[in-house]
Amino acid sequence: MAAPPPRPTRPGKKEIAVVEAKFAYTAQNPDELSFEEGDILYVLQKDDAGWWKCRSGDKEGLVPANYVGESTVEIENPMHEAAKRGNVAFLAELLAAGVSVNGLDRAGNSPLHWAARAGKTDVVRMLLEQKPAINSKNKLGDTPLHNAAWGGHLAVVTLLLSQPDIQVNIKNNDGATPQSLSKSDDVAALLIQFGNSSSGAGAVGGEDEDSD
């Protein structure tokens, strides 16, 4: 394995980008950020002296630019990245900056699609507070409820069913409903119960741990 490059001398432009660490780095000053090889970092700011301000999880700090390889000049859909990874802190920053919760990626997925698919309960809750397009379909015709049901994420399904405009029996391009895609008996039972009720009253919930 090649030796890591030397640390640049310390002495921006605000830009959202994602980078992958080429080498591990241990912070040597309080305002620096430690990370491991292969970690994904969100770049918040760059300067011309070789140091980038980055966020990893709920921590942020300066990192040597020559320790990371930029995988894309600019994230096309930063909120999607935050949603699928469960990065609550970065999601909150994007929401505060006014980034739309209804933006679509090339497959037609919204951030809510990704959070529902990954079972990121806290992210789903944050997105629902912004009143997103709850029944938005991707190019396969799947809604966030399809994704959550397919993943067996009971708590996420429960959150989605709490929305007044949710369509529980909506079909995708193959004619499948969320209930028919469910791999979880508990999720399927909840969807059937909700679908049989005109108001969804009596739906029961459950806890679902976030998973990476």
UniProtKB/TrEMBL annotation:
ANK repeat intervals: 74-106, 107-139, 140-173
GO BP field: signal transduction
Highest taxon of the lineage: Eukaryota
Subcellular localization(s) per the UniProt record: Cytoplasm
Gene3D superfamilies named among the record's database cross-references: Ankyrin repeat-containing domain, SH3 Domains
Residues in SH3 domain copies: 14-73
Function text: Induces bone resorption, acting probably through a signaling cascade which results in the secretion of factor(s) enhancing osteoclast formation and activity.
Protein name: Osteoclast-stimulating factor 1
Lineage, highest ranks first: Eukaryota, Fungi, Fungi incertae sedis, Chytridiomycota, Chytridiomycota incertae sedis
